[in-house]
Design brief:
Among the domains are: 44 residues; 45 residues, Arc Repressor Mutant, subunit A (Orthogonal Bundle), CATH 1.10.10. 28% of the residues lie in helices and 17% in strands. The chain contains seven helices and nine strands, in the order αααααααβββββββββ. It has a four-stranded antiparallel beta sheet with strand order 1-4-9-8. It binds a DNA duplex (21 and 21 nucleotides) through α3 and α6. Pfam families: Myb_DNA-binding (PF00249).
Length: 284
DNA sequence: AATCCCGACAACCGCGACACG
DNA sequence: CCGTGTCGCGGTTGTCGGGAT
């Protein structure tokens, strides 16, 4: 049995959105929100669109505070550094660039940034860090956090072009770098169990293959309750993602279901990865 | 002026995973 | 426990506009 289509493709409009459709969707969202169901939304809103299409349109275009246009030097560097570290996890990268969407960043990367880097160095044989099989936000996502030995982390180990780009800037992007993988401000993994229910085992595997292919694989195994792992330091962590999830002051604010994963990147403190997994009390 | 090419961006599609009945 | 519905992610494709020929 195949996957059931998410909508009646014969009765659904495709292609670019008209201003009228945008207005309808925006008006509906302003009044009712998603109502917890994107699939049913177009019908309620009087749109002949697939729910997924509505969601995409809203998240990437109609949502308030969306920023379009030129990426700044700082944004370039954040994208490069994070891509060098975590690969094409656009939603995570987007969470560090307020107003930018994952789609935006993905497009920007594919059309401009990648070429920019290619122009500064060859990418032959070099790329983002090895990527674990894709896992969605609900689940236990391995986090790859490479760090170099330089105080001003040199991404060129992973992505020479990124290093070149970053070095162009007078303002170096500082990472919390030690000669090992930095997990938390103390160098240890902060593992918090949010509901004190169900011990979570966190396994760390430091895979020091070569200097150019270091990677940290964090394997997290959670019990039935939610669990949080936190990398990095500082108490100012905050982030948001395209689904409206936000993390601020130790709490998640999520517009949807009880799930989340976030990674915060701070130029001063380095990466801070958060994961609230499962549907336990930890996932607000 | 017409055509081609290419870059940029919007949108689509398929998949994996969780929630829920 | 299982099946279905839904969500969200990331890769890919489609479309359009501008520049080059």
């Amino acid at each position: 049995m195949g996957r059931a289509p998410c909508c009646d493709k014969n009765n659904v409009k495709k292609g670019p959105w008209s201003p009228e459709e945008d207005a309808k969707l925006k008006e509906f969202m302003d009044k009712h929100g998603t109502g917890g169901n994107w699939i049913a939304l177009p019908q309620k809103a009087g749109l002949r669109r697939c729910g997924k299409s509505c969601r995409l349109r809203w998240l990437n275009y109609l949502r308030p505070n969306i920023k379009h246009g030129e990426f700044t030097e700082h944004e370039d560097r954040v994208i490069c550094s994070m891509y060098a570290s975590i690969g094409s996890r656009w939603s995570i990268i987007a969470s560090q660039l307020p107003g930018r969407t994952d789609n935006d960043i993905k497009n920007y990367w594919n059309t401009k940034l990648k070429k920019k880097l290619l122009g500064s160095t060859t990418m032959a044989g070099v790329g983002p860090p090895p990527r674990a099989p894709r896992q969605n936000h609900h689940q236990h996502r391995p986090v790859l956090l490479p760090y170099s030995s330089s105080p001003h982390s040199n991404y060129s180990n992973f992505f020479p072009g990124a290093g070149a780009l970053l070095q162009q800037s007078a303002e170096p992007l500082t990472l919390q770098a030690q000669d090992h993988y930095m997990l938390g401000s103390s160098g240890s993994l902060n593992h918090m169990n949010n509901n004190n229910n169900g011990a979570s085992a966190v396994q760390l595997q430091l895979l020091h293959a070569t200097a150019a292919h270091r990677q940290l694989q964090v394997k997290e195994e959670c019990g039935s309750g939610g669990a949080m792992i936190a990398f990095g330091c500082g108490d100012q962590q905050s982030c948001s993602s395209s689904d409206g999830t936000q993390y601020a002051g130790g709490q998640y604010v999520h517009g949807g279901r009880h799930h989340g994963k976030e990674m915060s990147f701070d130029n001063n403190n380095g990466y801070s990865a958060y994961g609230v997994y499962g549907s336990g009390a930890g996932a607000v």
